[in-house]
Amino acid sequence: MSNKITNVWVIIILLFSLNNLSAQQIPSLKKVGNKTQLFVNDKPFLVLGGELGNSTATSMENMLDVWPKMEDMHLNTILVPVYWELIEPQEGEFDFTLYKELIVEARKQGLKIIPLWFGSWKNSMSSHAPAWVKKDQKRFPRVRDNFGKSQEILSSFSDEVLLADLKAYEALMRFIRDFDSKEQTIIMMQVENEIGMLPSARDYESLAEAQFKKDVPKAVIDYIQTEKEKLVPEFLHTWKTNGYKTKGNWETIFGKGVQTDEYFMAYYYGLFANKIAEAGKKIYPIPTFVNAALNRLGREPGAYPSAGPLPHVMDLWKAGGNAIDILVPDFYNPDFKHWCDLYGRQGDPLFVPEHAFDNTAAAKALFTFGNYEGIGFSPFFIEGTKNAKEEPLGKIYDIINQLSPIINNHIGKGKIKGVLASKAIPETIVRLGKYELSCKHDYTLSWNPGAKVDEWPLASAIIIQTGEDEFYIAGNGIVITFKDIEDKNLNVGLLKVDEGSFTDGKWKAMRHLNGDQTHQGRHINVSHNSYTIQRVELYTYK
Ligand code: DGJ
Predict the structure, then answer these.
(1) Among 375, 410, 445, where does a domain finish?
(2) Is 214 among the domain residues?
(3) What is the tally of structural domains in the chain?
(4) For residue 233, what pLDDT is reported?
């Protein structure tokens, strides 16, 4: 072959591979029907996650015991802090060695990573700021509480704080883009961690004081006017009570008190976090979220971290920009459904980046995907388990992992339901197609020995309708009966019930269920501690 022809071939092959590379989209969120799906490596991706304890990923040695546990629990993603103090120990000098090693090892382990940017704030405080920031309080001012006392919390009103944080985050995003955009080990970003003002509802430092006296910024006024129909009701109510004013300072428009103090802070925290996210996205625009420490009912802002990305102030956060894709809850409170519903009021997808790694986590993980068709779930201090192979969470993740192709194919189409059952709420009714499903805790069965105990373990199931009469039902501790809601004269029977598993999306029946396992054809039972997937075919008779 002549040299000329060889060169042409080299160019063609090069262009082809370049084209292939650029053809793969970076991780992104896409609206699918009425839901939002995360796409990674061009495929839908459900985050079966776990967050590492705060100091765990500070060396690779410390991670040695962690990796096998992740595999044993069927995780596909770990949430890992990136500490500002470690990546920029001297101003302008960045070191990503640890993160390179973590990413390389995660790839070997088949895990994705969601970095948590512990920048200016981590649980309200600024403990992860580098020494050169901490020591220069003139350049990097701190907040002051209502007694004028300085706190170890950087001021969100300081341009110097913003610029320093933003430069570090930009360096991080450049590193991720250059090192990882091909493999896509890094799939989403969390900006800061549990932002919130303590111990007063707002900052009283001079920069904050000056802003508080000024008129409410135009961005807020524009947002509340254009989004009036969509505002969360409690915020709309305050604005309405004060006469829907559109000019004046914060107290003029929203009234005097800690509530307004919190609104004020929420907007400026939101503005700051949005600027960080926006700068990062200019470099590498992957999905970005901020997490909130949920408030306890009855407590005043300041007694809880005031003005974080909480449901009642989410409009103020959104008025600060649109570079943050999702505001998300961290769960150390009960009332999982209550809070998830509050976060979904404006149609936002659900992602749970932190949940206490307790005996309710597994059921709630399944409920996140079943009831909310959510993006992911992640208990905190995931490596804390002593017996990873036996963790209920691992068993649930295994089930979700097997089901993921059919979950992903049915998202946003009204074909997926999830139920949680407890002693307090033993039954939930759901509707799929022409069927009504009564889903009960299996301790409601009078012959179940568990029925007599005081505390019922939380039970959950996911139900996916794959055909008019065909369903896949999986979970732990749920009993289901069916009705035809279109024709009340028809009875619903179980035509065929199989227990089995999926491998690469292909169903394999392992046990045909009948007799006692279906109560002689009366119900479906995914009983406690069995963690099964069942394929169910229904029929009707007169
Ligand atoms: C919530 C924080 O986001 C985590 O980093 C951790 O501090 C947990 N609380 C509790 O330990």
Answers:
(1) 410
(2) no
(3) 2
(4) 98
